[in-house]
Amino acid sequence: METPSLMRRLGALLIDWIVAALSAVAIAGVNYPPAPLDQDASQTFIIIGFFILEVGLLSGLLGRSIGKRVMGLRLENRNGQPIGVPRALLRTALLCLVLPAIVMTEDKRGLHDLAAGSRVVRD
């Protein structure tokens, strides 16, 4: 098991964010870029909602989101299996808070991974 670089993980995050934003534009009619938070925060929160649902569902069921698939990563529990939808949704929601992802252990597991009992590995 190889721990992926932060650049690879950030690349996956960027791809997932773009997919979520484009989905929100196509399905919910959100403008992109969204209006500033002080003018209309709802557009940003809709995009965040799409991000949580897309990444959480795909990661929980398949062990990888679209971004992780493109970057050659997968999300797993200690047994090498997908973590399941509830824990993947928790992990993704914590990721959106940013701070849990920045605070990391020596093996590059953020607080969001510790809370969900997950780890990101290279395929």
UniProtKB/TrEMBL annotation:
Pfam families: RDD. It is found in: Cell membrane. Residues 3-117 form the RDD domain. InterPro entries: Pra-immunoreactive, RDD. Keywords: Cell membrane, Membrane, Transmembrane, Transmembrane helix. The chain crosses the membrane at residues 12-32, 44-67, 88-105. It is a multi-pass membrane protein. This is RDD family protein.
